[in-house]
Amino acid sequence: MGTGGALMNFAGAAEGAPADRVLAAWGPQERRRLSEIRDRFDPNRVFAAAARW
Q1: Predicted TM-score (pTM) of this structure
Q2: Structure-derived torsion over alpha carbons of residues 46, 49, 52, 53, reported in degrees to the nearest 10
Q3: Residue 38, class by beta-carbon neighbours within 10 Å (0-12 exposed, 13-18 middle, 19+ buried)?
Q4: Distant-in-sequence, close-in-space partners of 18: CB < 8 Å, separation ≥ 6
Q5: Count of CB atoms within 10 A of residue 25's CB?
Q6: Which of 22, 35, 38, 48 is the most buried (most CB within 10 A)?
Q7: Cβ of 52: how many Cβ atoms within 10 Å?
Q8: Is residue 44's pLDDT more than 60?
Q9: Contacts of 8 (CB under 8 A, 6+ apart)
């Protein structure tokens, strides 16, 4: 039985169903906080392909 979580290292493509599974792993508050952190530490989106939230 799964937990509903997602393993970022094995998520697959950055678009489509794999990316949707990663997004579903966090609630709205967590995704907002992750986006704030990404904006602060990676404003040029150097790591954008790995950041799936």
Answers
A1: 0.59
A2: 30
A3: middle
A4: 11, 12
A5: 17
A6: 22
A7: 20
A8: yes
A9: 22, 50, 52
- Of residues 1, 52, 47, 46, the one with CA closest to residue 30: 52
For residue 22, count other CB atoms closer than 10 A to its CB: 19
- Mean pLDDT, range 14-31, rounded to an integer: 77
Measured distance CA(15)–CA(40) in Å, rounded: 23
If pLDDT is split at 50, 70 and 90, which confidence band does 25 have?
Answer: confident
Give, in degrees to the nearest 5, the angle at Cα 46 between 35 and 5: 45
Average pLDDT over residues 36-49: 84
